[in-house]
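Case study 2.
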Amino acid sequence: MSSRLDSVLQKHPDHAEGIRLIAARDPSKNLKYLDWSAKVLASGQALAPEIADVVELFHEFKGHALPSKRGKDGRVHLERIAHDLYTYRAQDFANLRDNLRRLKRTKNKKLRERERLYRLDGPVEADVVYDSDDLVVRHIKNKNASAHYGLSTKWCIAMNRERYFEDYETQNATFFFFERKAPIKNEYDKVALVLSRERGAADGTEGAYTALDNRVGLLDLANAYGARVFDIFRVVYERSLAHPPSAAFLTNRGAASAEQLEAVFAKINETPAYEIANTLESICCNDGAPFTLLKQISANAHKLVCAAFKRSTGLSGRRVRNKTRALKAAREVDRNVRAALAVHRAVPDDERAVIIKALRRSGVHVESIRVADGYNRIGVEYATRWGRDRSLRARKRLRLRRRHRDNPKNLLHRAEMMERRAVRMRKKAEKLATKLEAQKAKPKKLKKRPAR
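Prediction:
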């Protein structure tokens, strides 16, 4: 390398100090970029520190594609940084510098987004229930603790930006993480034990999962950690039964307090579209819900459901279909929330009279409204004017019939539509009759008998 440095110094003796600075910062460790850097320095395109910065960026991003740019012709033009620095002339230094800085900014932006994605906001709540020289077992109490202690595993509950942890909590589950203090590089270095606080749960909630998310049994854990797991199981079962249920679980069962219901409603914007309607309905069916919360839900239910569908689908692609589904779900939850408020004891009588009047206009038999337990969830049931059919299509048909019956202009318009349809049907019937007569007029062909 000293011979290469001496050779470059002999070619450019007037820039010896700058060349030595560039050589000291050369990222290749064999000075392969030094000759090109000296030529750029001698041409006066930039000073030595800037050239050294560009060379370091080139060594990091050589061969990388630049962020796509749309040209004047409307087409996307893709460019790449060359693999060989010597393909660039000294006059190309400014363009190369700008492209490399673009790549650096793009990388920094992605890093910031990734850090934001995996950043834990809030405390990490976990208790150690067993501790020995080689094994520690923790009771995981919140989502941040699951993401923190479940790092480098394939558990769905360790995904910070997904809702799997909340889904398990809604099923009244508790979590205990087994972790070896000195990993031996197998899937039992970390194991997640999921327990249900309801004995005899048959929904598949309970189970143990290795770091690779493979479900294993009790004997497998005994083989991995020894017979002490039976004593650990006794401790974790006691902890699981003593741990209070989550606010979401109590809301679904109709046993939540006012503070818990308000906490669930405060996170309603994080609830997925397929779950938001049931959550709002369950909140309104809880006896502990205050009237201020019920009034807020009644005023915003339609808007919240539409916003949730927009977040989940973006209303892109099949825009009309998605928007129709959102509106249908919003109207349905609006009616269900009103039905729940009609029988809720916290609603004042004057407000209840207004709600009942609106429900009757929408075809609901108010006398049939009742709060009932569904599949692990409390909800409202009622009969409608169309029997058990609560679809928007039936409501629309009834509304159209009433409108055409009461409005002469609409009746005349409907008559014209039916006349045009009758003309089309007559033409179709005439064509079909002509075709049938032509078929009858054709002589029938005799079938040839096969030779014996």
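The chain has a mean pLDDT of 82.
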